[in-house]
Write the structure tokens for this entry.
Amino acid sequence: MTTLVAEVAALGLAVAFTSPVSVVTVIVLLTMPAGRRRALAFVGGWLVALAVLGALTLFVLHGQDFGSRSSTPSRAASVIEIVLGCALLVWAVVAYRRREPSKGGRSTPQWLGRIERTHWLVGIAVGAVMLSYGLSLAAASEILKANVSRLDAGLALGVFALTSMVTVLAPIVIVLVAPERAEQTLAAWKAWLLGNSRAVALVVLMVVAALLIVRGVHDLIA
């Protein structure tokens, strides 16, 4: 169980640190009317998406023989892991090669400005859409292959959910804990993220994708 928790926590952190656009989105939402509600709605949407994935994992797929490497479910999970890893790796490499050099003053994506004219509950849909489903499915696959009890699987899913939200929760914590410095701090974060983090996130994603491929191949041929 300790190994499983470490694996899903690592995947959760990979989600957190390969989602710079999500962090920028939360920062921008906080500057809008009803900003806190918008930001919390975003986090709520993120959690709703994870809850749906978790429900499928715990109540639909849990209990099948994913633990035995020679079983059909386990081999299917390994194949899914390899396919996800390959898809993520190809996408990350292509995106990295096509990225524009950092100019330090990149503007906020235009679509974020349109959200200001919508109801704050729209943040739920935005949060659900912006979850990294590839890495989330990889975490679910690891949990199923561990063949642990439903309670332990739920705990692992909880660890994944918490670690995946480390970066998107950070701006909200800053606003709540240090509101007098929040505007300056978040502006600095936003500028750095818009200017630098895309390349970093893509490199991290390449590493995670390669690890998923290696792990899936190992489980498939072992």
Remarks:
- The chain has a mean pLDDT of 84.
- The chain has ten helices and no strands.
- The two ends are 21 Å apart (CA to CA).
- The chain has one domain: 2-221.
